[in-house]
Amino acid sequence: MQQSVESLVRLLESYRGRDKVIRTVCYGSQLVGGVLTQKAEADVSSKRLGKRLLLFSAQLSHCRTVLRLFDDLSMLAYSQSYGLGASEEDAGVRWISVLTNVADQLYYPCEHIAWAADAELVKVKSDKWWLLSTVLWGTSLFLGILRSLRVLLLLRRKLKKHDWDGGGNRRSHLRRQIRGELLSILSSMADLGNAIHWMPPGFLWAGRFPSWLVGLLGTTSSLIGLIQMTTSSSELSDSAGLSSE
């Protein structure tokens, strides 16, 4: 119990960890709140609780939007360090990653303008800026799925090669990478479903998701993100321990 609490504290002390926890609670609240408000047999108190959870989810979403006001520089630093992806072995992965970085970099200022317009800090209509930020987010997710599919193909080729020439440790490492890419695809597909839902009506299934389904997709994506973060952290600590022995 104590170890679990300490792990949670370490997670909350990091910005990325705290954001993922807030995201999970945000979508989880929307999932439960959406279920409670739509259940026909629910009593008045349950529906009232559901509405409060939806309001709580909206406030957490707004909190994340405000925190993202300070993400531009970190994204810019990452884009500059990646550059044109000269370190990538595959050209397809490299150029998909570059386009993803461009979409992510443009996303932040568009969202900032939309937020500032809603807060009446700038005199522009926020609708088109929210739409543009959603399009950029969806584009980034779609490109991320394409990148993961390409990486999966390359990893399977490597795994097949190592099945022939042996190398048990290498095979297990490749299988972990494959599982990671599969989780990334599932996470991105869940988020892409919500991104399309928030597009203007008439585009695919835009506006057709009930609150509980938006919460379910977002919770699924958020939990996968938490799993990947904790897994990568434990792998780093394990490798550090092995190197010090």
UniProtKB/TrEMBL annotation:
GO process terms (BP): peroxisome fission
Entry GO CC: peroxisomal membrane
Subcellular location: Peroxisome membrane
TM regions (residue ranges): 129-153
Main location: membrane
Keywords, ordered alphabetically: Membrane, Peroxisome, Transmembrane, Transmembrane helix
Any Pfam family: PEX11
InterPro entries: PEX11 (IPR008733), PEX11C_met (IPR026510)
Highest taxon listed in the record's lineage: Eukaryota
UniProt-listed PANTHER family: PEROXISOMAL BIOGENESIS FACTOR 11 (PTHR20990), PEROXISOMAL MEMBRANE PROTEIN 11C (PTHR20990:SF1)
Protein known as: Peroxisomal biogenesis factor 11 gamma
Source taxonomy: Eukaryota, Metazoa, Chordata, Craniata, Vertebrata
